[in-house]
Amino acid sequence: MNSKTLGYILKRLGLAILTVWVVITVTFFVMHAVPGGPFTSEKAISAAAEAQLKAKYGLDKPLMTQYGTYLKDIVTKFDFGPSLKQRGRTVIVIIKDGMKTSAKLGIIAAFLALIVGVVLGSVAALRRNKAVDKIIMVITTAFVSMPSFIMGALLLLLFAVKLRLFPANGSTPAGLVLPIITLALYPMAYITRLTRSSMLDVLGQDYIRTAKAKGVSQKKIIFGHALKNSLIPVITYFGPMLAYIVTGSLVVEQVFAVPGIGRAFVSSITNRDYPMIMGTTIILASLIVIMNLVSDIMYKVVDPRITLE
Q1: Is the predicted pLDDT of residue 113 greater than 90, yes or no?
Q2: What span, in angstroms and rounded, lies between the C-alpha atoms of 42 and 55?
Q3: How far apart are the C-alpha atoms of 154 and 309, rounded to whole Å?
Q4: Chain centroid to CA 99
Q5: CB 258 within 8 A of CB 252
Q6: Residue 248 has pLDDT above 60, yes or no
Q7: How far is CA 205 from the centre of its chain?
Q8: Is the sign of the CA dihedral 217, 222, 228, 229 positive or negative?
Q9: What is the CB neighbour count within 10 angstroms for residue 241?
């Protein structure tokens, strides 16, 4: 690794830290600006009991004091604090438990979408305007246009209720099949269209025509030049997409009752569980920032002509 690449990575790391800090700050103050509080929904809670709860969790202190304490705990101990609703459990433990399922679900769905999308996109580009190209484009357009909750409900109705091939609950390994397919369909369709468009552009480049004129085999042209160079837009999309999916699709996890981080996040919003909302938001933002950095570095691996500045 040369000094220029190292300098670029260090600069991006600095920007990543700044981005995460901005996310923490904005989320913290916006949440506390919303009317109400985490204990307003408690049944028959008295003012004295509410005051004791606020004192217990440090919510009675000035807002800037709470903000400073929160930042210090994250930086020094990676501690997001206790959950205000799941008593006796810390936010980091809840996130770890949820991520065990969400990460497995997301990684499988993401790589399934990548592999199938690249293959279908390449086939469509190489068979441009043929029947197979038109069929692939029609199917991917439908998947891109259809919201995930509708697709999930259709798969659930067909394969779980009607055919009874898979369980409707996502708490078992067999029950994760339908959520994985649901999560993979949209990115798979998008990657297919992205790969097709990029490969068609690459196949029209002068160096491809030169390689054909020199008698280079079709296989080497496709796999050695066209496919490799057409993956750059796919890498751009795949990095952040992987972070989003791994963190968990809120709608899909709700539809299939998957015990992942998505359900915990939705519950924390409805319950005004401030530390849980903060912790999940920070993890999501950090994953997206990291995957963006990894994507930029991968550009250099795929195409050495790209310079990192």
Answers
A1: yes
A2: 16
A3: 46
A4: 12
A5: yes
A6: no
A7: 33
A8: positive
A9: 23
Q: How far apart are CA 107 and CA 113, in angstroms?
A: 10
How far apart are the C-alpha atoms of 262 and 280, rounded to whole Å? 9
- Model confidence at 200: pLDDT above 80: yes
Q: How large is the greatest C-alpha to C-alpha distance in the chain, in angstroms? A: 85
The C-alpha atoms of residue 24 and residue 211 are separated, in whole angstroms, by 52
d(CA 278, CA 82): 11
Taking the C-alpha atoms of residue 238 and residue 110, their distance in angstroms, rounded to an integer, is 8
Q: For residue 210, give both structure tokens.
A: 């030169």
CA angle 58, 285, 268 (to 5 degrees): 45
Contacts of 55 (CB under 8 A, 6+ apart): none
CA distance to 49, 83, 105, 293, 302, per residue, from 307 (Å): 60, 45, 35, 14, 12
What's the pLDDT at 112?
93
pTM over 0.85: no
Give the whole-angstrom CA distance, residue 185 versus residue 152.
10
Which of 58-67, 137-146, 261-270 has maximum average pLDDT? 137-146
* For residues 296-306, average pLDDT: 65
d(C-alpha 245, C-alpha 102), whole Å:
8
Q: Distance between CA atoms of 138 and 205, rounded to whole angstroms?
A: 27
CB atoms within 10 A of CB 74: 18
Q: Do 280 and 243 form a contact (C-beta atoms < 8 A)?
A: no
Read off the DSSP letter of residue 204: T
Token pair, residue 293, equals 């950095």
